[in-house]
Amino acid sequence: MLMTHRSPDQCRDMQDIRTEIDTIDRQIIALLGQRIGYVQAAAAFKTSAASVRAEERVNAMLAVRRQWAEEEHLPPDLVEKVYRTLVEGFIQHEMTQWQKS
């Protein structure tokens, strides 16, 4: 996995910042690729559309992500919003996989 080369305070200009952000984004996308593999595998264990949506599980997961955000001194509302969007997309993908099986 790619690593950043400079910390934010070591960046000399906007190009350095953009380069580092691009590197981080590439890492995030690679991790999303790993995550989707598990989402696809999960579809095989689901028995209904409701089990794919798993609203209680999603809500519990979001609460944990908010806690993790707080531990990392990140805005929990922002992290929750990002994860809600992410999870909804993955649920739609999983639903497609589940319907095929």
TrEMBL record:
SMART domains: CM_2. Its EC number is 5.4.99.5. Substrate binds at residues 18, 35, 46, 94. Keywords: Isomerase. GO terms for biological process: chorismate metabolic process; salicylic acid biosynthetic process. Residues 8-98 form the Chorismate mutase domain. Pfam families: CM_2. NCBIfam families: PRK07075.1. This is chorismate mutase.
